[in-house]
Amino acid sequence: LGRARLAAALALIATAITSGAEPRWRLTRQTRLNFYAAAVAHDADGGSLFLSSKDGLYSIDLASMRVGGAIAGVSGAGSVAVSPAHGEIYVLALHDDVLRVVDIASRRVARTFPAPAGFNVFVDASTSDLYYLRADTPTVRVASRVDGRELARITLDGAPSFVLRDPARHRLLVRLADRDLIQVIDTRERAVAVSWPMASEGQSAMGLDERTGRVFASDGRRVVMLDGASGKPLGRFGAGDAVRSIAVDAATGAVEALWGGSRINIARVHDLGIDLQTSVDTHTLVRQLFLDPRSHRLYALATADDARRGSDDPNAPAANALRVSAILTLEAK
After folding, report:
1. d(Cα 290, Cα 295) in Å, to the nearest integer?
2. pLDDT of 209-246, one tens digit each?
3. Percent of the chain residues topping a pLDDT of 90
4. What does the alpha-carbon distance between residue 46 and residue 52 come to, in Å, rounded to a whole number?
5. Listing from the earlier edge strand, what are the strands of the sheet with 243-249?
6. In the Cβ-directed half-sphere of 250, how many Cα atoms lie within 13 Å?
7. Potential cystine with 78: which of 94, 249, 313, 317 (Cβ 3.0-4.6 Å)?
8. pLDDT, position 217
């Protein structure tokens, strides 16, 4: 897309098909970034996003949508995790065996220690342990957030494809790519406690209702609602294609599922199950969804082409286009 075409697409009011008294969702804002985000960590308590890129680590205040400058001392950033309780961000290097711990208040690197390159890092808020997982290995590494010392290794029954944190219940849920399973890690025991049957068709995504513990998992062109204690299916709703990201608003019972690159289906949980309410088209390529539990706004990490060196004609193909990211804001009106 050329720059003018990108601006026009992002400025469109999202097309929504609603049923009943469901609020109409609208795309109310787009915040264009001057970099491509490799990974994102969402601090729901602090109302911030932390985004890694080859140039470093950036922050976005969701209330003002102000983008903070690159944090000094961080470059070639890959996977990123945040611990609001400790006021820290954990940034794993893309190509080096090192993890940098950034103090959020000072925006400075507080300490550095060895860590496995090419992995994804997660922090468990209930134990403060770091978890390293990678899609091509069934081995989960558990390390200290203080000094990086390895504390345990956990062997899964297959390769992980998605990780969902649930610190209130001291667990980490791991979806497997090559087995029809969700494996639940007890973070106090640092071991797999139970496995739930779950089809692995299509892309892998999960979301959590933090109040009830219910888990929402993609199943091809559907989202299945699972009981948080037993993993038993309680209901499902459809999407037009494979679901790639899920966000859950525990206060309102809304469940948002991204599919087809740009469309978001929004369902509502009720006493008897879950029903599809709305379908929204963002008119641009979206990679991931985030839900602000305070404002109930939905944020979407979008990917676009920056054609500053291309044609001003919105219908012309981008010349020498660069991939950049944008944050879309959607609100129920």
Report:
1. 12
2. 999 999 999 998 999 999 999 999 999 999 989 999 99
3. 73
4. 18
5. 15-18, 273-281, 263-270, 254-259, 243-249
6. 12
7. 94
8. 96
